[in-house]
Amino acid sequence: MEKTTATGDPPPATENASAGEAILVYDGVCLLCSRWVRFVLARDHAARYRFASMQSGHGRALLREHGLDPDDPNSLLLLERGRASTDSDAILRVLDGFGGAWRATRLLRLVPRRLRDPAYRWLARHRYRWFGRSEACWLPEPDHAARFLD
To answer: Which positions ≥6 away from 63 have C-beta within 8 Å?
Structure first.
């Protein structure tokens, strides 16, 4: 039987993120977000990232734990080494985590976050209209299923 919190959600997976594993919480019904997860899966050769959709028990609990509203999911959340990153910082950290030539994306951090994050939030507000929304969360291929928390 799976453990749950007082709210009925699974316990937070933050301890996994602090143990060297990174967890990416994404909007599972957003088609753009699902493409982002497939992009990460294809380039994360070290299998460093695990995933939780915002609609899952783990995803909702992690969002709440980090002050984000699980019912108004406009932020991407990355947990790694005990540190939480959101929005453009989360994206840049994931890209940097691929290593190799992807580390050149560090240069984008020269653009102040006060400019990057509003652009991220603008895209997040329009993502369903521009990219679409599915009725159910995207399901990974069986060989990647173990990397998803719910």
So the answer is: 25, 54, 69, 70, 73, 75, 77
Q: pLDDT by residue (tens digit) across 116-136?
A: 999 988 988 888 889 888 876
The per-residue pLDDT for range 12-36, each reduced to its tens digit, is 444 444 445 799 999 888 888 889 9
pTM: 0.80
The full set of domains in the chain, from first to last, is 14-133 (3.40.30)
Q: Which residues contact 83 (CB under 8 A, 6 or more apart)?
A: none
Nearest to 61 by CA among 6, 141, 1, 98: 6
